[in-house]
């Protein structure tokens, strides 16, 4: 168990170091996230009352779109120069690689969630009414989508049509997460009177299932 | 000019032809039962005395409900065969999974279409966001559309089989979660009441529904059988087994006959 976690940490730190050095997250994905928020504003006639009401849903759609970019990046760094083979030959357990790559995406998503929260506060006039729920629901959702995204990134990797295949494979699977996370943030941002904690529980269940399934299936996907 | 391949270019066999014929007759019988012999759903409101019910729209349910059940059967089979492939790693499981998923997706599409057509007069809308089963079915459909997209990539067959198996298993695991989440979704709009529970299920209605299950099970079996054979042949072609078979046939057959068949002039 200890070696699994330390191997996962190696992979996560490698991916995060690549991101920190390439600055794709800060120079491309983050501006894209803000751009999506602004586009929603235009599409909904820049009516702040409407935007505030739909902010939780728009927030999570923006997160999912960013997730696609993060997952593409995460699997592209392994495809380039056949780095995946190097990773396999290093003798790391596939489950550790999966957990490490998921953790790296998780960290990126958390940064983006912070940025997007600032975005909806500034652009849509939203406010965080329940800070603890906002934090926990945000974390659990990021965990669920990062694990699912990593698994599907491996599914689509190495194929010529990776960019177009990933969204069609991944987004339907994440539909329940979108529903749950939107409901949880409805509560956290005070947009609707729902029990956000019940939804957070559901999201946690999804995160556990996705992480376990991913850790088990990853080996079958990367072997050749 | 005779084409010697025409006699073998079929996935039919005496058994599947008999099944196909029986299925066709069953379908005709089902359509007659559903659209002619059964009564429309008309009831009298106890207090207002007005005629209420689904009227003729109910006839679609004799097709819709059995197709929905077959969709779940097909997808379950696809998931089961996918698990089988990951354990056994033999092409039989993979081809079965692919065939079941593809036929299941056709059924799932038809379920969505017939449900939508039924919903227009009964719910007064083509699409009902608040309905549990509608959402579950749509998500399931989209997942398997993704599965089929993955199937059409030009990856190595074994890599593709492995990845597709994982997608099918995730789709099935996700199903109860999708179901639960939408049930917990705030019920802002009218919800589907137990459609069949409202009807007086008796005599001809029940009989027609049971025939519907049977007929669509036969349609499924027939389609699955042929899709499996196509898949198996595709696999064989991919592995150059066909080339070997032709070579064998060449050795058996008269040389000039083969030459004329492939358009060669000596």
Q: Nutshell version of this structure?
A:
The complex is a heterodimer of chains A (224) and B (266). Chain A has 224 residues and is mainly alpha-helical.
- Per DSSP E runs of 2 or more residues, the count of β-strands of chain B stands at 2
Shape designation of chain A: globular
Order of helices and strands of chain B: HEEHHHHHHHH
Which spans of chain B of ≥5 residues are poorly predicted at pLDDT below 50? 1-6, 188-195
Total of helices of chain B: 9
N-end to C-end Cα span of chain A: 25 Å
Label the overall shape of chain B: globular
Give the SSE string of chain A: HHHHHHHH
Largest sheet of chain B: 2 strands, antiparallel
Helix content of chain A: over 70%
Q: What spatial order of strands do you see in the largest sheet of chain B?
A: 1-2
Largest sheet of chain A: none
Mean of residue pLDDT of chain A? Answer: 91
Strand content of chain B: under 5%
Tell me the helix content of chain B.
over 70%
């Amino acid at each position: 168990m200890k070696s699994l976690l330390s191997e996962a940490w190696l992979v996560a730190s490698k991916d995060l170091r690549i991101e920190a050095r390439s600055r794709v997250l800060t120079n491309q994905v983050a501006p894209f996230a803000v751009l999506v928020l602004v586009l929603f504003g235009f599409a909904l006639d820049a009516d702040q009352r409407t935007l505030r009401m739909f902010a939780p849903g728009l927030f999570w759609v923006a997160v999912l779109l960013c997730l696609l970019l993060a997952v593409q990046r995460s699997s592209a760094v392994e495809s380039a120069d056949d780095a995946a083979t190097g990773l396999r030959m290093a003798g790391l357990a596939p489950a550790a690689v999966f957990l490490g790559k998921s953790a790296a995406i998780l960290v990126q998503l958390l940064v983006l969630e912070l940025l997007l929260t600032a975005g909806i506060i500034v652009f849509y006039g939203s406010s965080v009414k329940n800070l603890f729920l906002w934090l926990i629901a945000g974390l659990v959702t990021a965990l669920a989508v990062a694990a699912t995204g990593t698994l599907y990134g491996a599914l689509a990797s190495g194929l010529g049509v990776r960019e177009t295949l990933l969204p069609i494979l991944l987004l339907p699977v994440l539909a329940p997460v979108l529903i749950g996370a939107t409901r949880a943030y409805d509560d956290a941002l005070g947009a609707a009177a729902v029990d956000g904690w019940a939804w957070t529980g559901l999201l946690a269940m999804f995160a556990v299932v996705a992480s376990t399934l991913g850790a088990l299936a990853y080996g079958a996907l990367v072997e050749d | 000019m005779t084409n010697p391949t025409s006699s073998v270019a079929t996935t039919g066999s005496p058994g599947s032809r008999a099944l196909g014929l029986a299925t066709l007759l069953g379908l005709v019988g089902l359509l007659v039962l559903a659209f002619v012999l059964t009564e429309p759903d008309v009831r009298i409101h106890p207090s207002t005395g007005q005629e209420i019910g689904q009227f003729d729209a109910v006839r679609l349910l004799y097709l819709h409900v059995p197709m929905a059940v077959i969709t779940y059967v097909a997808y379950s089979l696809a998931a089961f065969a996918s698990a089988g492939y990951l354990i056994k790693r033999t092409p039989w499981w993979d081809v079965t999974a692919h065939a079941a998923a593809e036929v299941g997706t056709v059924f799932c599409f038809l379920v969505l279409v017939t449900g939508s057509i039924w919903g227009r007069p009964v719910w007064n809308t083509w699409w009902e966001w608040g309905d549990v089963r509608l959402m579950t079915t749509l998500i399931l459909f989209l997942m398997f559309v993704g599965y089929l997209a993955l199937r059409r990539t030009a990856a190595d067959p074994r890599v593709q089989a492995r990845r597709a198996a994982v997608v099918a298993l995730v789709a099935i695991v996700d199903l109860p979660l999708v179901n639960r989440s939408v049930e917990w979704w705030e019920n802002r709009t009218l919800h589907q009441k137990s459609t069949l529970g409202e009807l007086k299920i008796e005599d001809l209605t029940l009989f027609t529904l049971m025939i519907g299950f049977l007929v669509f099970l036969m349609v499924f079996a027939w389609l699955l059988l042929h899709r499996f054979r196509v898949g198996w042949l595709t696999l064989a072609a991919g592995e150059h087994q066909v080339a070997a078979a032709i070579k064998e046939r060449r050795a058996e057959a008269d040389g000039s006959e083969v030459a004329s068949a492939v358009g060669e002039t000596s």
